[in-house]
Design a protein that fits this description.
Number of helices: 16
CATH class of the largest domain: Alpha Beta
Number of strands: 15
Strand content: 5-15%
Distance between the termini: 103 Å
Shape: elongated
Structural class: alpha/beta
Strand order of the largest sheet: 9-8-7-10-13-11-14
Length: 482
């Protein structure tokens, strides 16, 4: 009896839909938008090229072409990446300049958003030399109807979201992207879940039939980039100025303990601070490694040693954040001092708004509990505990100050540098405010948003800190802290 012939494999679909990729950064995921502030975008590592290269390799393996919807910001920062896409035979279309929550885009801001889209189209055309025929809205919602209509009226040939394609974010193909902490577990799960199977699913899908770009599916020819009327110039960062003797001298103290994971982001962030402070203060930075046991000191030297106006100080053993801040104060003779959190739980660019408040005050402290402040991703139990402790400090000292343990502050050196410090760790930040107020000093609050750290682990020992605050409150009530 002859052997049974194997069953024929199913025929691939004859008219596979077009293939589209969204070229954006991993932190542009809409699932993160509600919890991850846009301020973090400037400091998180850019990895768009990794996902794009993976997409190009998969397409090449299956002899298929696609449409890559690219953000204008990525085209401006990585033009070679966009040229790689075109050289591989793919279409480049627009995804705007950066993703925007259109539900929060007020009517008055729509013109600016349209200008940003036009700037993105021109950035892509400048890199590719080709006309950009299509677009897709990265964070598509029902609120995008006005934008889609305006873009079609501006001369785009098609809206990618109406072409029946399943748009694949290229960051889905980057399995090694950084792992964030401090965001809700469900948010992190939704973000990281696609990484496990995205590349395999895409390969299986393309194995059924070769796909093609939207332009090829619609029969849109490749045309050279047209000449367009000039746009208003985009705002540019202020250049860093040389330190001027006419500006107030400000030393920014950064206490650090086992912050290896977050130091690269901190370096990026402080570059932005330097740009901002150049016009308002003669700045310097004092980094204090508080007895780290990881590579914090090594990375500090690699990132900052040799920079002008930067000092590096090291504790042989961990002595706590308040001791690290005090060491930083003693390492400089600047008349104005600031301390910021090494985990960037507050936005350091707020220093520009805090500095003028020091006129007539001894300390200006960031305050998430101010009526105009806020918190993000802080566990409710921890928030309740902090508010309760702050309430006790307010009552005992008959003060309007709402936040007592923030490390993000600006100080008048003469008012704080000689104050005694008896309390260790985070307690010392509350002790300092108590002593300033008990000596007739003035403390002002600046509303800020406190966010959970994104990298590394918190150094606060919760039970120990609670006991310490209760002990300090008892000492304050007995008049022992002056």
């Amino acid at each position: 009896m002859p052997p049974t012939s194997p069953a024929p494999e199913p025929s691939p679909p004859r008219n596979a839909p077009p293939l589209g990729f969204l070229v954006c950064e991993w932190f542009h995921d809409q699932a993160l938008a509600a919890q991850l502030s846009r301020r973090h975008w400037r400091r998180l590592p850019a990895r768009a090229a990794i996902g794009v290269e993976s997409a190009l390799a998969i397409c090449a393996a299956h002899q298929t072409t696609a449409t890559f919807f690219v953000l204008g910001a990525i085209a401006a920062e990585q033009p070679g990446l966009v040229r790689r896409i075109v050289d591989a035979g793919h279409e480049v279309a627009s995804a705007g300049w950066l993703p925007v929550d259109l539900a929060q885009c007020a009517t008055a801001a729509r013109d600016a958003e349209l200008v940003a889209w036009e700037r993105a189209r021109r950035a892509l055309e400048a890199v590719t030399g080709r006309a950009v025929g299509g677009f897709a809205v990265p964070w598509a919602t029902v609120d995008a109807a006005w934008l889609r209509q305006a873009l079609l009226a501006a001369g785009y040939a098609y809206d990618g979201d109406t072409q029946g394609l399943q748009l694949v974010p290229t960051w889905h193909l980057d399995k090694e992207q950084p792992r964030l902490v401090g965001l809700p577990a469900r948010t992190l799960r939704d973000h990281y879940a696609p990484l496990a199977h995205a590349a395999c699913s895409l390969s299986q899908r393309l194995a059924l039939a070769p796909h093609r770009s939207i332009a090829a599916a619609l029969g849109i020819p490749v045309l050279p980039a047209p000449l367009r009327a000039p746009l208003p110039p985009a705002s540019v960062p202020r250049p860093a100025a040389a330190v001027s003797a006419d500006l107030p001298r400000l030393a920014v103290i950064v206490p650090l303990m086992n912050e290896e994971a977050g130091l690269p982001s901190l370096a990026v962030e402080l570059d932005a601070v330097v740009q901002q402070l150049a016009a308002i203060a003669a700045w310097e930075f004092v980094f204090v490694d508080d007895g780290s046991t990881d590579r914090t000191w090594e990375l500090l030297q690699s990132l900052f040693a040799g920079r002008a106006n930067v000092k590096l100080v090291q504790h042989a053993q961990n002595r706590g954040v308040s001791a690290a801040i005090r060491t930083g104060m003693l390492a400089t003779d600047a008349p104005i001092l600031a301390s910021i959190d090494g985990d960037l739980s507050y936005d350091p660019l707020e220093l520009e708004r805090m500095l003028p408040l020091l006129a007539g005050a001894d300390v200006v402290t960031a305050s998430p509990y101010h009526r105009d402040g806020g918190v993000k991703n802080v566990p409710p139990w921890r928030l309740s505990l902090s508010r309760t402790l702050s309430w006790f400090y307010q009552r005992l000292l008959r003060s309007e100050v709402r936040t007592w343990t923030s490390c993000f502050r600006i100080y008048r050196r003469a008012a704080v540098v000689d104050l005694p410090q008896d309390q260790p760790g985070f307690l010392g930040t509350a002790e300092l405010l108590v002593r300033v107020l008990r000596r007739g000093g003035v403390v002002r609050e600046h509303p800020c948003v406190l966010e959970a750290r994104l990298f590394g682990l918190s150094k606060m020992k919760i039970l120990r800190t609670i006991r310490g605050h209760l002990r300090l409150l008892w000492q304050v009530a007995c008049g022992r802290v002056r």
